[in-house]
Amino acid sequence: MVTPYAPPTIADLVGRTPVVRLQRLPVDGGGMVLAKLEGDNPAGSVKDRPAFSMIAAAEQDGRIAPGATLVEATSGNTGIALAAAAAVKGYRMILVMPAGSSRERSLSMTAYGAEVVETDKEGGMELARDTAEQISRDTGAVRLDQFANPANPRAHELATGPEIWEQTQGTVTHVVSSMGTTGTVTGLSRGLHAIAPRVRVIGIQPAPGAAIPGIRAWPPEYLPRVFDPTHIAEVRTVTQERAVETTRALARREGLLVGMSSGGAAAIALEIAAEEPGSTVVFIACDRGDRYLSTPLFDTAGEQA
Protein backbone atom coordinates (compact mmCIF):
# COMPACT_ATOMS: atom_id res chain seq x y z
CA MET A 1 0.00 0.00 0.00
CA VAL A 2 1.33 3.41 -1.00
CA THR A 3 1.49 5.87 1.87
CA PRO A 4 -0.36 9.10 0.96
CA TYR A 5 1.90 12.11 0.55
CA ALA A 6 1.56 14.39 3.59
CA PRO A 7 3.34 17.72 3.06
CA PRO A 8 4.65 19.43 6.21
CA THR A 9 2.81 22.28 7.87
CA ILE A 10 4.45 25.43 9.24
CA ALA A 11 4.49 23.88 12.71
CA ASP A 12 6.43 20.90 11.34
CA LEU A 13 9.23 23.23 10.23
CA VAL A 14 9.99 24.62 13.68
CA GLY A 15 13.41 23.47 14.89
CA ARG A 16 16.22 21.49 13.27
CA THR A 17 17.93 24.79 12.50
CA PRO A 18 21.45 24.57 11.04
CA VAL A 19 24.75 24.97 12.84
CA VAL A 20 27.54 26.73 10.94
CA ARG A 21 31.21 27.35 11.73
CA LEU A 22 32.64 30.86 11.92
CA GLN A 23 35.57 31.21 9.52
CA ARG A 24 36.93 34.75 9.52
CA LEU A 25 36.48 36.03 13.06
CA PRO A 26 39.74 34.84 14.59
CA VAL A 27 40.22 32.75 17.69
CA ASP A 28 44.02 32.54 17.66
CA GLY A 29 45.16 29.31 19.26
CA GLY A 30 41.72 28.71 20.70
CA GLY A 31 38.68 26.64 20.00
CA MET A 32 36.06 26.57 17.27
CA VAL A 33 32.92 28.72 17.32
CA LEU A 34 29.62 27.60 15.79
CA ALA A 35 26.39 29.55 15.31
CA LYS A 36 23.01 27.86 15.76
CA LEU A 37 20.90 29.77 13.24
CA GLU A 38 17.52 30.11 14.92
CA GLY A 39 16.52 32.77 12.40
CA ASP A 40 15.85 29.86 10.04
CA ASN A 41 12.68 29.00 11.96
CA PRO A 42 9.46 29.81 10.03
CA ALA A 43 8.72 33.07 11.89
CA GLY A 44 12.38 33.99 12.08
CA SER A 45 13.63 33.41 15.62
CA VAL A 46 14.39 31.05 18.49
CA LYS A 47 11.00 32.03 19.94
CA ASP A 48 9.15 29.93 17.37
CA ARG A 49 9.95 26.92 19.55
CA PRO A 50 8.28 28.08 22.80
CA ALA A 51 5.48 29.89 20.92
CA PHE A 52 4.19 26.71 19.28
CA SER A 53 5.00 24.72 22.43
CA MET A 54 3.02 27.02 24.75
CA ILE A 55 -0.04 27.07 22.50
CA ALA A 56 0.06 23.28 22.10
CA ALA A 57 0.33 22.83 25.88
CA ALA A 58 -2.60 25.20 26.48
CA GLU A 59 -4.70 23.25 23.98
CA GLN A 60 -3.83 19.94 25.63
CA ASP A 61 -4.68 21.34 29.07
CA GLY A 62 -8.04 22.61 27.81
CA ARG A 63 -7.14 26.25 28.58
CA ILE A 64 -7.97 27.44 25.07
CA ALA A 65 -10.69 26.47 22.64
CA PRO A 66 -11.22 27.27 18.95
CA GLY A 67 -11.55 31.01 18.39
CA ALA A 68 -10.01 31.95 21.76
CA THR A 69 -8.24 35.25 22.39
CA LEU A 70 -4.66 35.06 23.64
CA VAL A 71 -2.55 37.82 25.19
CA GLU A 72 1.19 38.07 25.84
CA ALA A 73 3.82 40.65 26.71
CA THR A 74 6.78 40.70 24.34
CA SER A 75 9.79 42.72 23.31
CA GLY A 76 9.49 41.43 19.77
CA ASN A 77 10.50 37.91 18.78
CA THR A 78 8.06 36.00 20.97
CA GLY A 79 5.29 38.26 19.74
CA ILE A 80 6.10 37.60 16.09
CA ALA A 81 6.28 33.85 16.72
CA LEU A 82 3.01 33.83 18.68
CA ALA A 83 1.30 35.91 16.02
CA ALA A 84 2.34 33.35 13.40
CA ALA A 85 1.30 30.40 15.58
CA ALA A 86 -2.05 32.02 16.40
CA ALA A 87 -2.66 32.62 12.69
CA VAL A 88 -2.08 28.93 11.98
CA LYS A 89 -4.42 27.91 14.80
CA GLY A 90 -7.14 30.51 14.21
CA TYR A 91 -6.79 32.40 17.51
CA ARG A 92 -7.02 36.14 18.08
CA MET A 93 -3.68 37.42 19.42
CA ILE A 94 -3.12 40.57 21.52
CA LEU A 95 0.53 41.48 21.99
CA VAL A 96 1.70 44.06 24.54
CA MET A 97 5.04 45.65 23.71
CA PRO A 98 7.04 48.62 25.05
CA ALA A 99 7.12 51.55 22.63
CA GLY A 100 10.39 52.01 20.77
CA SER A 101 10.83 48.51 19.38
CA SER A 102 11.98 48.27 15.79
CA ARG A 103 9.31 49.02 13.20
CA GLU A 104 10.01 45.71 11.47
CA ARG A 105 9.02 43.76 14.56
CA SER A 106 5.77 45.64 15.10
CA LEU A 107 4.82 45.39 11.42
CA SER A 108 5.59 41.67 11.39
CA MET A 109 3.14 41.10 14.26
CA THR A 110 0.32 43.02 12.59
CA ALA A 111 1.08 41.33 9.25
CA TYR A 112 0.22 38.02 10.92
CA GLY A 113 -3.06 39.56 12.12
CA ALA A 114 -2.15 40.30 15.74
CA GLU A 115 -3.31 43.39 17.65
CA VAL A 116 -0.39 45.32 19.14
CA VAL A 117 -0.80 47.34 22.35
CA GLU A 118 2.14 49.65 23.06
CA THR A 119 3.09 50.63 26.61
CA ASP A 120 5.26 53.49 27.78
CA LYS A 121 8.88 52.92 26.83
CA GLU A 122 10.14 53.99 30.25
CA GLY A 123 8.13 51.23 31.90
CA GLY A 124 10.03 48.59 29.95
CA MET A 125 9.02 44.96 29.85
CA GLU A 126 7.90 45.13 33.46
CA LEU A 127 5.03 47.47 32.51
CA ALA A 128 4.24 45.39 29.43
CA ARG A 129 3.94 42.27 31.59
CA ASP A 130 1.68 44.04 34.08
CA THR A 131 -0.48 45.38 31.23
CA ALA A 132 -0.87 41.93 29.65
CA GLU A 133 -1.99 40.59 33.01
CA GLN A 134 -4.53 43.40 33.34
CA ILE A 135 -5.90 42.76 29.84
CA SER A 136 -6.29 39.10 30.73
CA ARG A 137 -8.24 39.98 33.90
CA ASP A 138 -10.42 42.55 32.14
CA THR A 139 -11.25 40.62 28.97
CA GLY A 140 -10.82 36.95 29.81
CA ALA A 141 -8.07 36.59 27.20
CA VAL A 142 -5.78 33.65 27.95
CA ARG A 143 -2.36 34.87 29.04
CA LEU A 144 0.33 32.44 27.91
CA ASP A 145 2.93 34.05 30.22
CA GLN A 146 6.22 32.96 28.67
CA PHE A 147 7.96 34.11 31.88
CA ALA A 148 6.27 31.44 34.00
CA ASN A 149 5.11 28.87 31.44
CA PRO A 150 7.05 25.57 31.74
CA ALA A 151 6.36 24.86 28.06
CA ASN A 152 8.86 27.65 27.28
CA PRO A 153 12.03 25.96 28.59
CA ARG A 154 10.64 22.51 27.81
CA ALA A 155 10.81 23.26 24.08
CA HIS A 156 14.57 23.76 24.38
CA GLU A 157 15.11 20.92 26.83
CA LEU A 158 13.45 18.40 24.51
CA ALA A 159 14.64 19.76 21.16
CA THR A 160 17.25 22.53 21.01
CA GLY A 161 19.75 20.93 23.39
CA PRO A 162 19.60 17.46 21.81
CA GLU A 163 19.86 19.03 18.33
CA ILE A 164 23.11 20.77 19.25
CA TRP A 165 24.54 17.52 20.65
CA GLU A 166 23.62 15.60 17.49
CA GLN A 167 24.72 18.30 15.05
CA THR A 168 28.16 18.61 16.66
CA GLN A 169 28.43 14.80 16.84
CA GLY A 170 28.94 15.07 20.57
CA THR A 171 31.94 17.40 20.34
CA VAL A 172 30.27 20.50 21.83
CA THR A 173 31.97 21.72 25.00
CA HIS A 174 30.17 25.04 25.63
CA VAL A 175 26.83 26.56 24.66
CA VAL A 176 26.28 30.31 24.96
CA SER A 177 22.78 31.78 25.14
CA SER A 178 21.50 35.29 25.77
CA MET A 179 19.06 35.61 28.67
CA GLY A 180 15.67 37.26 28.15
CA THR A 181 12.80 35.21 29.48
CA THR A 182 15.59 32.76 30.48
CA GLY A 183 13.60 29.94 28.88
CA THR A 184 16.26 29.17 26.29
CA VAL A 185 19.22 29.00 28.67
CA THR A 186 17.23 27.06 31.27
CA GLY A 187 15.93 24.51 28.77
CA LEU A 188 19.31 24.13 27.06
CA SER A 189 21.06 23.53 30.38
CA ARG A 190 18.54 20.87 31.42
CA GLY A 191 18.54 19.11 28.08
CA LEU A 192 22.30 19.02 27.71
CA HIS A 193 22.85 18.03 31.34
CA ALA A 194 20.71 14.95 30.74
CA ILE A 195 22.81 14.00 27.71
CA ALA A 196 26.31 15.21 28.63
CA PRO A 197 26.79 16.88 32.02
CA ARG A 198 30.29 17.99 31.01
CA VAL A 199 28.89 20.55 28.51
CA ARG A 200 29.01 24.03 30.05
CA VAL A 201 26.01 26.26 29.34
CA ILE A 202 26.74 29.97 29.76
CA GLY A 203 24.06 32.64 30.07
CA ILE A 204 24.58 36.20 28.84
CA GLN A 205 23.19 39.34 30.47
CA PRO A 206 23.76 42.99 29.53
CA ALA A 207 26.44 44.91 31.38
CA PRO A 208 25.13 47.71 33.62
CA GLY A 209 23.71 50.50 31.45
CA ALA A 210 23.62 48.41 28.27
CA ALA A 211 20.46 48.32 26.15
CA ILE A 212 20.48 45.14 24.06
CA PRO A 213 17.15 43.99 22.59
CA GLY A 214 16.33 40.49 23.76
CA ILE A 215 18.76 40.42 26.70
CA ARG A 216 17.68 41.40 30.20
CA ALA A 217 18.88 41.49 33.79
CA TRP A 218 15.60 41.41 35.73
CA PRO A 219 14.93 43.04 39.09
CA PRO A 220 14.23 40.34 41.69
CA GLU A 221 10.46 40.90 41.75
CA TYR A 222 10.25 40.31 37.97
CA LEU A 223 12.72 37.42 37.68
CA PRO A 224 11.01 34.91 35.37
CA ARG A 225 9.60 31.93 37.23
CA VAL A 226 10.89 29.61 34.49
CA PHE A 227 14.48 30.47 35.41
CA ASP A 228 16.39 27.53 36.88
CA PRO A 229 20.14 28.09 37.40
CA THR A 230 20.78 24.50 38.54
CA HIS A 231 22.65 23.41 35.42
CA ILE A 232 23.86 26.80 34.15
CA ALA A 233 27.66 26.85 34.51
CA GLU A 234 28.02 30.63 34.70
CA VAL A 235 26.54 33.96 33.66
CA ARG A 236 28.67 36.56 31.89
CA THR A 237 27.90 40.12 30.87
CA VAL A 238 28.42 41.90 27.58
CA THR A 239 28.53 45.62 26.85
CA GLN A 240 26.29 47.23 24.27
CA GLU A 241 29.32 48.44 22.32
CA ARG A 242 30.77 44.96 22.12
CA ALA A 243 27.44 43.42 21.10
CA VAL A 244 27.01 45.98 18.32
CA GLU A 245 30.59 45.58 17.09
CA THR A 246 30.32 41.79 16.96
CA THR A 247 26.90 41.87 15.27
CA ARG A 248 28.29 44.07 12.51
CA ALA A 249 31.39 41.89 12.19
CA LEU A 250 29.24 38.77 11.81
CA ALA A 251 27.49 40.38 8.84
CA ARG A 252 30.57 41.83 7.19
CA ARG A 253 33.05 39.04 7.81
CA GLU A 254 30.91 35.91 8.16
CA GLY A 255 27.87 36.69 6.02
CA LEU A 256 25.58 36.21 9.02
CA LEU A 257 22.95 38.95 9.35
CA VAL A 258 21.67 38.55 12.90
CA GLY A 259 20.31 40.71 15.73
CA MET A 260 22.20 42.36 18.57
CA SER A 261 21.45 39.66 21.15
CA SER A 262 23.09 37.18 18.79
CA GLY A 263 26.09 39.46 18.49
CA GLY A 264 26.33 39.64 22.26
CA ALA A 265 26.29 35.86 22.53
CA ALA A 266 28.84 35.55 19.72
CA ALA A 267 31.18 37.98 21.49
CA ILE A 268 31.21 35.81 24.61
CA ALA A 269 31.49 32.61 22.54
CA LEU A 270 34.63 34.00 20.88
CA GLU A 271 35.95 34.97 24.29
CA ILE A 272 35.42 31.47 25.67
CA ALA A 273 36.95 29.82 22.60
CA ALA A 274 40.07 31.97 23.03
CA GLU A 275 40.30 30.91 26.67
CA GLU A 276 39.76 27.20 25.95
CA PRO A 277 42.02 25.66 23.26
CA GLY A 278 40.37 22.66 21.65
CA SER A 279 36.88 23.72 22.66
CA THR A 280 33.77 23.66 20.47
CA VAL A 281 31.61 26.61 21.45
CA VAL A 282 28.07 26.96 20.08
CA PHE A 283 26.19 30.24 20.44
CA ILE A 284 22.48 30.73 19.85
CA ALA A 285 21.93 33.17 16.98
CA CYS A 286 18.47 34.16 18.19
CA ASP A 287 17.04 35.86 15.12
CA ARG A 288 17.70 37.49 11.77
CA GLY A 289 19.15 40.96 11.42
CA ASP A 290 16.68 42.09 8.79
CA ARG A 291 14.17 42.97 11.52
CA TYR A 292 16.61 45.62 12.80
CA LEU A 293 17.56 47.38 9.56
CA SER A 294 15.62 50.53 10.49
CA THR A 295 17.53 50.84 13.79
CA PRO A 296 21.01 52.32 14.41
CA LEU A 297 22.43 48.78 14.67
CA PHE A 298 23.21 48.67 10.95
CA ASP A 299 23.39 52.42 10.34
CA THR A 300 27.11 52.35 9.61
CA ALA A 301 27.46 54.74 6.68
CA GLY A 302 31.07 55.75 6.14
CA GLU A 303 32.51 52.99 8.32
CA GLN A 304 34.77 50.26 7.05
CA ALA A 305 34.81 46.64 8.18
From TrEMBL:
The keyword Amino-acid biosynthesis applies. Its EC number is 2.5.1.47. Residues 11-287 form the Tryptophan synthase beta chain-like PALP domain. InterPro entries: Cys_synth, Cys_Synth/Cystath_Beta-Synth, P-phosphate_BS, TrpB-like_PALP, TrpB-like_PALP_sf. Its cofactor is pyridoxal 5'-phosphate. One of its GO terms (molecular function) is cysteine synthase activity. It comes from the Bacteria. Pfam families: PALP (PF00291). It is an enzyme of class 2 (transferase). Keywords: Amino-acid biosynthesis, Cysteine biosynthesis, Pyridoxal phosphate, Transferase. NCBIfam families: cysKM, PRK11761.1. Belongs to the cysteine synthase/cystathionine beta-synthase family. This is Cysteine synthase CysM.
